[in-house]
Amino acid sequence: MSPEIRRRKTKSIDLGGLRIGGDAPVVVQSMTSCDTRDVRATVAQIHALEEAGCEIVRVAVPDEAAAAAIHEIRSRIHIPLIADIHFQHPLALLAMDHGADGIRINPGNISADGIRRIVRMAKANRKVIRIGINAGSLEKEIAARHGGPTSEALVESALKNIRLLEEMDFDLIKLSLKSSDVKTTIDAYRSVSAKTDYPLHLGVTEAGTLIQSAIKSAIGIGTLLYEGIGDTIRVSVTGSPVPEIGLAYGILRALNIRREGPDIVSCPTCGRCEIDLAGLADRVERELRGMKTPMKIALMGCVVNGPGEAAEADIGIAGGKGAGMLFKRGKVVRKIREEEFVPVLLEEIRKMEAESGPSEGH
To answer: Which H/E stretch holds residue 220?
Structure first.
């Protein structure tokens, strides 16, 4: 087993009853992609995110109607809700008044006076503020001084805005410094983590569609987590946010930071493979979507590495033409026919879930 990653110690804050920072696990969050004013659609999407394992959700608040909708949305979901505010600070005040657990502000498009008004209300009501520095909307004078949205510019903006909040004796702060450039993102977080101990929310912004996002996020978020940096993460994917959650937990599992849900191991196949391994892996992955119990599942179609990999997993199949061997916790259970692979595997997994009890969770 790989050595445990030593996480950087950060302040511990409470967001709607969820602990962030300190010794708390790295938290997975996302953002809805539907119109916040459509309460039914927003709640349905959040429920789908919750089922996938999302632990914090953010919603866009473009106008007063969206801010007002937060009241009903918050009453029908089970995870903390953050209101995403741009340009108009009064919307942050309305969102908090309607039950938002936290506010994400972008200092690049809100005036210092507007930020002070937000802080006063947040302080009075114990609401968390995320200072969300974004390369695409950095303060103009800072960008000009650094010749663009460099990592140094992002850090300067972050520290400047932290000082603004601290001057008002406010410390319920979470911080993010995002760029669509992976190296800029990594450099910015490395730098700021040495200068402040507020909890850090990691992400590569505007990462693109599923495959591009997976690549950029695994490199950017994964590198920082490996170095012990980061308290919450979001993998940004264009389109439905639900796939973000699986990718996020995949990164955490790959680093042994959190063990939650199935870790499916399957070979890339070669000329020795005599079964439809890709189809088998896809079907098992679909059937286990939403599973919370940590479990390593090996699906192998190779006589070279198959038996060994399957034996190392919690449960696995080493398949050959027409039949295969079912392994469970390192031991051969029995020989099964190819058409039995999925039903038998799923039946055994459900039994193991029942035996293991509640998953890791927080």
So the answer is: helix 210-226
Residues 6+ apart with CB under 8 A from 271: none
Spatial CB neighbours of 163, under 8 Å, sequence gap ≥ 6: none
CATH of span 262-356: 3.30.413.10
Phi and psi at 219, nearest 5°, equal: -75, -50
- Which tokens hold the place of 149? 């949205």
* Domain boundary assignment for the chain: 13-254, 262-356
CA angle 264, 248, 69 (to 5 degrees): 130
- Give pTM, 2 decimals: 0.89
CATH level 3 topology of 13-254: TIM Barrel (3.20.20)
Task: Confirm if 177 and 125 have CB atoms less than 8 A apart.
Answer: no
Identify the burial level of 192 via C-beta atoms within 10 angstroms of its C-beta, where 0-12 means exposed, 13-18 middle and 19 or more buried.
buried
Helices (H) and strands (E) in the chain, counts: 12, 15
Residues 128-175: pLDDT tens digits?
Answer: 999 999 988 888 899 999 999 999 999 999 999 999 999 999 999 999
Q: Dig out the tokens for 133 from the structure.
A: 């520095």
d(C-alpha 130, C-alpha 264), whole Å: 34
Q: Which of 357, 290, 259, 294 is nearest to 50 (CA)?
A: 290
